[in-house]
Design a protein that fits this description.
The protein is α+β, with helices and mostly antiparallel strands. The protein has one domain: (Glycosyl)asparaginase (Glutamine Phosphoribosylpyrophosphate, subunit 1, domain 1, 4-Layer Sandwich), CATH 3.60.20. The chain contains 9 helices and 12 strands. It binds aspartic acid. Aspartic acid (ASP) binds next to strand 8.
Length: 320
């Protein structure tokens, strides 16, 4: 089955069931909040964000819409930092990381997965079909096989030849540059006013085998608290993990900061540990319960997509 039709068949076949509301206390949005659906994602993933926005307008829940957006990039071979076509590790193997979190505080993650394209959906399956939060490596791949996910190589010819070129020039030195990050982090608010999110990446290009960044770590690459809002991160994962960036932003919003103030404060927490402006990029995107949006980055060049009231637009973010 082609990857794209796999995405559509997943959504159509109802393989993203909504949760039973009996099991959990549903948080009711405040009356003052207008629940227009909102889809946001990191970078300029236009098609992915439009897909999520339309899914929300059709009444899909925020988690399903978030995963649908991630899936568009996971199957996009042109994107060298997510899914199929992602840059490999320094041994030439593509390993993917993803996590999801829903409006009830449930979450799932997969780390260092090989041969499976749709790792955000797999993270959801970990959340919904196992008693666990995280599965890694071979265990995650075996779980995907059991659920009949398509199993296929992730390394494209282009990614392979870029890696071979990198080996000649980089002598296996770690890569730290400003624009080598394009993780997709998605935040959605559905018609019910519920916020959920997803994050999917192939991680840092030519990373050490086994290296995990922030993207599949709940609280770092993604955090949702449906009473407050949500946040996602992209960029140098090690720095996001050290400051538990997405959790920090949501907690700052809980204490009264706007999403913009909270994103700026989270970037400041990274910068205050540096002697000079660092040569790595970190960027955050946040959404609060009332639909306010914030974003901040260490360097210029970051942008995000916003789908709201039928309009899908790319919004550039100024560096702090
Ligand atoms: N945050 C990702 C990581 O460190 C990289 C990225 O944003 O592209 O693995």
């Amino acid at each position: 089955m082609k990857r794209r039709s796999f995405v559509h068949s997943l959504s159509l076949a109802g393989l993203f069931p909504s949760f039973s509301t009996q099991q959990f206390k549903t948080i009711q949005p405040q009356e003052s909040i207008k629940n227009d659906p909102i889809a946001l994602c990191t970078w300029n993933f236009t098609e992915a964000n439009a897909f999520a926005g339309k899914a929300l307008e059709e009444g899909k829940d925020a988690l399903t819409a978030s995963i649908l957006a991630a899936q568009i990039e996971e199957e996009n071979s042109e994107n060298s930092t997510v899914g199929y076509g992602g840059a490999p590790d320094r041994n030439g193997q593509v390993t993917l990381d993803a996590c999801v979190m829903d409006h009830r505080g449930n979450c799932g993650a997969v780390l260092a997965v090989e041969n499976v394209v749709h790792v955000a959906a797999l993270a959801r399956d970990v959340m919904e079909k196992t008693p666990h939060v995280m599965l890694s490596g071979k265990g995650a791949e075996d779980f995907a096989r059991k659920l009949n996910y398509p199993i296929q190589p992730l390394l494209t010819d282009t990614a392979k030849s870029n890696w071979e070129q990198w080996k000649k020039e980089a002598h296996y030195q770690p890569i730290i540059n400003i624009e080598n990050h394009d993780t997709i982090g998605v935040l959605c608010r559905d018609k019910e006013g519920n916020i959920s999110g997803a994050c999917s990446t192939s991680g840092l290009a030519y990373k050490m085998k086994g290296r995990i960044g922030d993207s599949p770590i709940i609280g770092s690459g993604l955090f949702i608290d449906n009473t407050v809002g949500g946040a996602v991160a992209t960029g140098m994962g090690e720095e996001v993990v050290k400051t538990v960036g997405s959790f920090l932003i949501v907690e700052l919003m809980r204490q009264g900061m706007t999403p913009q103030q909270a994103c700026e404060e989270a970037i400041k927490r990274i910068l205050e540990k540096q002697n000079a402006k660092p040569n790595f990029q970190v960027a955050y995107l946040a959404l609060d319960k009332a639909g306010n949006i914030g974003a901040c980055a260490i360097h210029d060049g970051f942008s995000y997509m916003q789908h709201r009231e039928g309009k899908n637009q790319n919004i550039p973010v100024n560096a702090l």
